[in-house]
Amino acid sequence: CHEGRVFSGIQPTGIPHLGNYLGALESWVAIQDDYSSVLYSIVDLHSITQPQNSELLRNNIVDMAASLLACGIDPTRSILFQQSLMKSMQKNEGSVGLYTYPVLQAADILLYKSTYVPVGEDQIQHLELAQDLARIFNNKYGELFPEPCALLSSTRKVKSLRDPASKMSKSDPQTLATIFLTDTPDDIVFKIRRAVTDFTSEVTFDPVGRPGVANLVSIHAAVTGQAVEDVVRLANGLDTGKYKTVVAEAVVQRLEPIRQEIQRLKADKCHLEKVLAEGAEKARSLAAPVMQEVRKRVGF
Ligand code: ADP
Ligand code: NA
To answer: Does the active-site annotation cover 170?
Structure first.
């Protein structure tokens, strides 16, 4: 187990999709085995700068908490909490103008003296802000914050099933483009059957020339934990139509236990609230001495 502390956050924007799972959440789960101190935050504060339906936000937080637990985030091994619950326990609230995503993310990373931050390549700039702030603070007020470094997830981006030139995303208006963790086996089969391929029937891996088929191959490899070459070799002799059935089956096998667990957890909101409340309490106890030290050095 590595020393140091891992921190990452995810916005409560509804049920995660297959791209979120393979690109981020799956590695969040694995990180619990490798690091002794791990914090995962449902980052809901940025959304107070935008008009928000509070019931919808509440629902989205429940969905995200249930999804993270169902994916394998274990509250006995990592601190799972809701950012606003933790921050509202602190006396000095920042001004609403500070509640922008990159600033809050940097503040959160430092607040827990995090040393590792799992990020996708698209989020490295956000981490640079936290690194700069740590350096600036340490120079001015004496060494306090470790400079956090990135844990880069190496997974290839999952592409939209309908437009393999763009990434799979929750905000894709095409309803068949995105597989959500709560999709039923029928939903998954239906969506994968309608995934865009091309006019060649054999299965190959050529992300540039055949992005639709390559996307299916890399999804297949990712959900089964196999290498891309092995998946292609095993698909030898199948046409893309038959291959879609194989891929759909593999995705269903991987996601169905997660879907059922999300259902089960969502039926017990009290339990979810309790997990989040306990998480906030643990996060607070880590942050409080850091904040105290910051106040002492800065003099407020
Ligand atoms: P979205 O793009 O659907 O809005 P987010 O921006 O909330 O998703 O991303 C949450 C996490 O999931 C990030 O770590 C991001 O890198 C990862 N992620 C999002 N979409 C994909 C994808 N299509 N493939 C792989 N990882 C993804
Ligand atoms: Na995004």
So the answer is: yes
